[in-house]
Design brief:
about 260 residues; disordered N terminus; about 30% strand; disordered C terminus; 9-stranded antiparallel beta sheet; alpha+beta
Length: about 260
């Protein structure tokens, strides 16, 4: 495995900076290189279980002591999105059946879920717009100390709801917490049997992007497919290093819920 100290690609550096520094909030994760999936397999549930096992010895307090955040992006028709919302306990503030453009949010505080639905911008309407006139973003944000079983059940519930509603979705997650082993990123990559694709390193953050055949998720980064990003960053105001893992990539736009 190549060391990030020996290889820093310009494209990789730019990609990582964008993903790590994107503003917190409800912004659409819209990337035309990310193919939507019908979700016929529980890919994200599978990848969550893998990363939980791989990272259990790398965080202070174990994987349970880290912060896990999940996000699904996709689109569909009104009936599919309304079915998804109902099955996940959301009460939409308005119907999607009218002619006016839609831009609504809903929350399910009990399950720590947030949903954002909007009409596709006119510039994005194409030949299949009748099959997918709405975009959606669904967030699941856990608290530190949440166990594997509870998170797994919630992720599976979301994936099954999307499948049943016939929606096209692409999922991902980020986990972050205090790193207890200086060589944790290299150890995790070795456990995942991951091939290094891109690298970035500065005085505060070191990040590597990989492809692992052990994971079912994946996105295109140029000519390469990637599905695992591992970074360690200096926590502001402390000397502790934070270990951040993303599948298929690290994103910084998950809403923190206290």
């Amino acid at each position: 495995m190549q060391s990030y100290r020996r290889r820093q690609s310009r494209g990789g550096m730019l990609a990582v900076v964008i993903f790590l520094l994107i503003l917190v909030g409800f912004t659409v994760w819209h990337n035309r290189n990310i193919p939507a999936s019908s979700g016929t397999t529980l890919a994200l549930s599978h990848d969550f279980e893998q990363v939980w096992q791989w990272s259990s010895d790398s965080y202070a307090g174990g994987a349970e002591g880290a912060h896990w955040s999940f996000r699904w992006d996709g689109g569909g028709k009104a009936e599919g999105i309304e079915q998804l919302a109902a099955s996940l306990g959301f009460a939409l503030p308005s119907s999607l059946d009218g002619d006016a453009p839609v831009d609504i949010t809903a929350t399910n505080d009990a399950d720590r879920l947030k949903l954002w639905v909007r009409s596709k911008p006119a510039g994005q309407l194409d030949g299949d717009s009748s099959n997918s006139p709405y975009e959606l973003v669904l967030l699941l944000d856990t608290v530190r100390g949440t166990g594997n079983k509870e998170i797994s059940e919630e992720v599976e519930k979301v994936e099954h709801a999307a499948i049943d509603a016939g929606l096209l979705v692409q999922g991902g997650f980020t986990v972050r917490g205090e790193m207890v082993q200086a060589d944790a990123p290299d150890r995790l990559a070795a456990i995942a049997k991951a091939k290094e694709i891109e690298a970035y390193d500065d005085s505060h953050t070191s990040s590597l992007t990989y492809y692992s055949e052990s994971l079912k998720s994946g996105v295109q980064s140029g000519a390469e497919k990637v599905n695992l990003q591992i970074a360690n960053a200096l926590t502001t105001g402390t000397t502790a290093r934070e270990l951040i893992i993303g599948v298929p990539l690290i994103t910084g736009d998950y809403t923190e819920q206290q």
